[in-house]
């Protein structure tokens, strides 16, 4: 399986930038996903990285370094609605391409 | 387009009782997943279906859990008998295709989940 580590909680101010780090260990890396999950709701897909580098989608960007087993999700121009849990998920070729999730990082945006 | 539909949204039962969850995936999605999410944790895969076939059920506790996906569309997940430790959110997800077929086909879309409390 995979060991996926991400911080438990982060707090930031509205309009600021927050970076959520994710480290993982896997033998057959085959992609990394970021999901957003508001309290009591379903996870929703945010981004996907399979090659090294930065993927930008509006206010959200995700970075991957496969050699370091590291990714981050960057949230810019934070809004109150961004308060949610952010889940890092890694797919492993050896696990029949199963998606393994981290425990999630709860981001609280303050006014 | 409707998303993944799950019912019930909430369920409270006493231990040793049976319980069943139902999932209707997004129309046209061939792959269906059942996950369990404990409080403060990420979802953990229980079983994955490709059409009617269960292709990965290695994490499904088969002594008490069972699942089926008749006709390759709707799916049910059953626990019998339920234990206190089964209290969790049970999430259903679907994707157009299978992992490795490209982002559009393999992105998973989640339903709202069923919150189970076993007393």
Which secondary structure elements does this structure contain, and how are they paired or packed?
The complex is a heterodimer of chains A (111) and B (119).
Chain A: E1 3-5, E2 9-13, E3 18-25, E4 29-37, E5 44-49, E6 53-57, E7 60-65, E8 70-75, E9 84-92, E10 98-101, E11 105-110
Parallel strand pairs in A: 2-11
Antiparallel strand pairs in A: 1-3, 3-8, 4-5, 4-9, 6-7, 7-8, 9-10, 9-11
Chain B: E1 5-7, E2 10-13, E3 19-24, E4 31-37, E5 44-50, E6 53-56, E7 65-68, E8 75-79, E9 88-95, H1 103-106, E10 109-110, E11 114-118
Parallel strand pairs in B: 2-11
Antiparallel strand pairs in B: 1-3, 3-8, 4-5, 4-9, 5-6, 7-8, 9-10, 9-11
What attributes characterize this protein structure?
heterodimer; A: 111 residues; mainly beta; six-stranded mixed β-sheet; B: 119 residues; four-stranded antiparallel β-sheet; globular
Structure description:
The complex is a heterodimer of chains A (111) and B (119). By secondary structure, chain A is mostly beta strands. Chain A is built from no helices and eleven strands. In chain A, strands 2, 4, 5, 9, 10 and 11 form a six-stranded mixed sheet that branches. In chain A, strands 1-3-8-7-6 form a five-stranded antiparallel sheet, with no helix packed on it. In chain A, strand 4 and strand 5 form a beta hairpin. The N and C termini of chain A lie far apart (39 Å). The model of chain A has no long low-confidence stretch (mean pLDDT 93). With 119 residues, chain B is mainly beta. Helices cover 3% and strands 46% of the residues of chain B. Chain B is built from one helix and eleven strands. In chain B, strand 4 and strand 5 (44-50) form a beta hairpin. Chains A and B meet through strand 5, strand 9 and strand 10 of A and strand 5 and strand 10 of B.
């Amino acid at each position: 399986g995979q060991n996926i580590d991400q911080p438990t909680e982060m707090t930031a101010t509205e309009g600021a930038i927050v970076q959520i780090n994710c480290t993982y260990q896997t033998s057959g890396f085959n992609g990394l996903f970021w999901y957003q999950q508001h309290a009591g709701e379903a996870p929703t897909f945010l981004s996907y990285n399979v090659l090294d580098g930065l993927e930008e989608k509006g206010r959200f960007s995700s970075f991957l370094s496969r050699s370091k087993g590291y990714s981050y999700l960057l949230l810019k121009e934070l809004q109150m609605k961004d308060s949610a849990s952010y889940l890092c998920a890694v797919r492993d070729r050896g696990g029949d391409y199963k998606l393994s999730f981290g425990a999630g990082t709860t981001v609280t945006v303050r006014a | 387009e409707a998303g993944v539909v799950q019912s019930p949204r909430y369920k409270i039962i006493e231990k040793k009782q049976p319980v069943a969850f139902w999932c209707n995936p997004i129309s046209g999605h061939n792959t269906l997943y059942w996950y369990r999410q404990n409080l403060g944790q990420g979802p953990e895969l229980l079983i994955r279906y490709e059409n009617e076939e269960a292709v990965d059920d290695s994490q499904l506790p088969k002594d008490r859990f069972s699942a089926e996906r008749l006709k390759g569309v709707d799916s049910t997940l059953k626990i019998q008998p339920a234990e206190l430790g089964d209290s969790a959110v049970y999430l259903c997800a679907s994707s157009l295709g299978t992992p490795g077929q490209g982002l559009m086909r393999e992105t998973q879309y989640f339903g709202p989940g069923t919150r189970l409390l076993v007393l």
